[in-house]
Amino acid sequence: MAGGYDDRDGKIWMDGRLVPWRDANVHILTHAMHYASSVFEGERCYNGTIFESRKHSERLLASGAAIDMPIPYTVDEIEAAKYQVLEAMGLTDAYVRAVAWRGAGEDMGVASQRNPVRLAVAAWEWGAYYGDAKMKGAKLDISKWKRPSPETIPSHAKAAGLYMICTMSKHAAEAKGCSDAMMFDYRGYVAEATGANMFFVKNGEVHTPDPDCFLNGITRQTVIGMLRDKQIKVHERHIMPEELESFEQCWLTGTAAEVTPVGQIGDYSFEVGALTRDIAQSYEKLVRS
Prior knowledge:
Blueprint: E1 11-14, E2 17-20, H1 31-35, E3 38-46, E4 49-50, H2 53-66, H3 75-89, E5 94-102, E6 117-124, H4 133-136, E7 138-147, H5 164-175, E8 180-185, E9 190-193, E10 197-202, E11 205-209, H6 218-229, E12 234-237, E13 249-254, E14 258-265, E15 268-269, H7 274-287
Parallel strand pairs: 7-8, 7-14, 11-12
Antiparallel strand pairs: 1-2, 1-6, 3-4, 3-5, 5-6, 8-9, 10-11, 10-13, 13-14, 14-15
Helix pairs in contact: 2-3
């Protein structure tokens, strides 16, 4: 599928029905456009099955509740919508985006209780998020922006507004020839990339930041389970910046990223080692099983 995301053939599920792709529009005074009242999910479909689909739908509803925006659909209804879109698009391998937002209505200020909560689902073909980094390892910048304290934002919601500093960080990284950026949290601990969780390897054991102020990704949880099934010790803990020098391998996890090795973060280099390759291959096998 080529062209801008607003100018394509196909169907998008919107508020209970399929509409032509180019007609899936909202009013300029949609509340979400002005006040970021939106939550979303990114999912991948492999061989006709969306990996961990219900977990994504459940998290969408939880994210809506976290930002005081109850979504008027059940998990079963969201599941049906996703597969209806895939069928309409004729896709068996695809990226699926479900998004809920406060639309235009009687309120046009910070408060929006009287505005309807809307839901849409789209699907399209999408290859490797980091391109050829899956083979040679991604190059990451170190962002100047930090993940905020959970006292300031609903950090465990997959909410659109929380990605503003991620977009800024990724733009700055791309300007330096990097694929992405690593972010620290408000305390100075290693946190995550702009849209993916992080794992490090040292002496055959795996270390990953404690997700106490950022999203505990579904792919992250899957990979931790895989590692433990392989009898590999996993340390979920706070990681200091100076520890980066001692790690031998690094990889990213996320629905879009899947399992992507990292070759460089700032001035720190990592090998695309055997454990990284094994986990990437095991994950690929799992999602297509």
